[in-house]
């Protein structure tokens, strides 16, 4: 369907005139049948939307001029939904991963009570390959103030002991040739406050990461707007939804931070 259109005349008059080759033309590239029953047109500046019968061509599309001929391709609803869903999925996955990273960092900070997570960050040089301690040994807590490291391969005991000594966990390993025992020292009041500042900084870093993910999503929406796959109103609505998701994950970081802070400051 090709319809002559000029900003200097009304839409109604254009629908009754024959196309004039010397003027710009609309060319809607889509597969549909119509008996000419055009229910409604909407136009604003260089943007138009068209409803044919019960079907609406989505959404506000912009004329692209090529010499004296213009071509408009209307993005389908399916295409737009696919783009939006992809961005939303990526945002939630990245934000959830950020929260888990923050939680993992908190778990690796000892609070005076024994926890296997205290050794999560330790890397062991196992046959000239750096691997995580928990991948080559089982870490258990026989009581609230000690850890027990049981290697799957006893020949790795020396390497594990060396890795613990070189780490910043602040515990001295006791290797009896079968297992490694670690006594978890009680924290002083000053050390608790110092660790509280560390987790506060890590929580803020997590929030910065969340805000960066939000920024990336906004750029993706703006790109779709430039490509005419989304209208300005679409982008405003999606930005509002994105802010709600951002606030949700910010609260999750606040929750894990408060839990860790309470754990650190409780004697």
Task: Tell me what the structure shows.
Belongs to the RRF family. The chain has 267 residues and is an alpha+beta fold. It is built from 5 helices and 13 strands. The strands form 5 sheets. Strands 10-11-13-12 form a 4-stranded antiparallel β-sheet, with helices on one face. The chain has a 3-stranded antiparallel β-sheet with strand order 3-4-5, with no helix packed on it. A two-stranded antiparallel ribbon has the order 1-2. It starts with a strand and ends with a helix.
What are the key terms here?
RRF_sf; single chain; 5 helices; three-stranded antiparallel beta sheet; coiled coil; disordered N terminus; chloroplast; plastid; four-stranded antiparallel beta sheet
Mean pLDDT: 77
**Number of helical runs?**
5
Shape: elongated
| Element order: H for helix, E for strand | EHEEEEEEHEEEEHEEHH
Strand order of the largest sheet: 10-11-13-12
Rg measurement, Å: 31 Å
GO cellular component, one term: chloroplast
Protein name: Ribosome-recycling factor, chloroplastic
Domain Ribosome recycling factor: 103-265
Main location: plastid
Question: Can you summarize this structure?
Answer:
This protein is an alpha+beta fold.
SSE order and pairing:
Elements: E1 2-4, H1 11-16, E2 25-27, E3 38-44, E4 47-52, E5 55-62, E6 64-66, E7 69-71, H2 77-107, E8 123-126, E9 129-132, E10 137-143, E11 146-151, H3 157-166, E12 173-175, E13 180-183, H4 189-226, H5 232-265
Antiparallel strand pairs: 1-2, 3-4, 4-5, 6-7, 8-9, 10-11, 11-13, 12-13
């Amino acid at each position: 369907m090709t319809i002559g259109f000029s900003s200097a005349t009304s839409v109604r008059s254009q629908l009754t005139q024959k196309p004039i080759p010397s003027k710009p033309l609309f060319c809607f590239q889509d597969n549909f049948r119509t008996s000419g029953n055009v229910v409604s047109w909407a136009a604003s500046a260089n943007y138009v939307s068209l409803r044919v019968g019960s079907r609406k061509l989505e959404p506000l599309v912009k004329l692209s001029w090529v010499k004296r001929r213009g071509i408009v391709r209307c993005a389908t609803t399916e295409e737009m939904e696919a783009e939006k869903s992809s961005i939303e999925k990526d945002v939630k996955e990245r934000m959830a991963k950020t929260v888990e990273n923050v939680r993992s960092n908190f778990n690796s900070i000892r609070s005076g009570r024994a926890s296997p997570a205290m050794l999560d960050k330790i890397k062991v040089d196992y046959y000239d390959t750096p691997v995580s301690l928990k991948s080559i040994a089982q870490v258990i807590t026989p009581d609230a103030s000690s850890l027990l490291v049981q290697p799957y391969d006893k020949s790795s005991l020396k390497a594990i002991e060396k890795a613990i000594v070189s780490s910043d966990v602040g515990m001295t390993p006791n290797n009896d040739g079968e297992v490694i025992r670690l006594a978890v020292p009680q924290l002083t009041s000053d050390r608790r406050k110092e660790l509280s500042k560390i987790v506060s900084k890590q929580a803020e870093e997590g929030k910065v990461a969340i805000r960066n993910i939000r920024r990336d999503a906004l750029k993706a929406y703006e790109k779709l707007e430039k490509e005419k796959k989304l209208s300005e109103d679409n982008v405003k609505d999606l930005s509002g939804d994105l802010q709600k998701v951002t606030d949700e994950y910010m609260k999750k970081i606040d929750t894990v931070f408060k839990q860790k802070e309470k754990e650190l400051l409780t004697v």
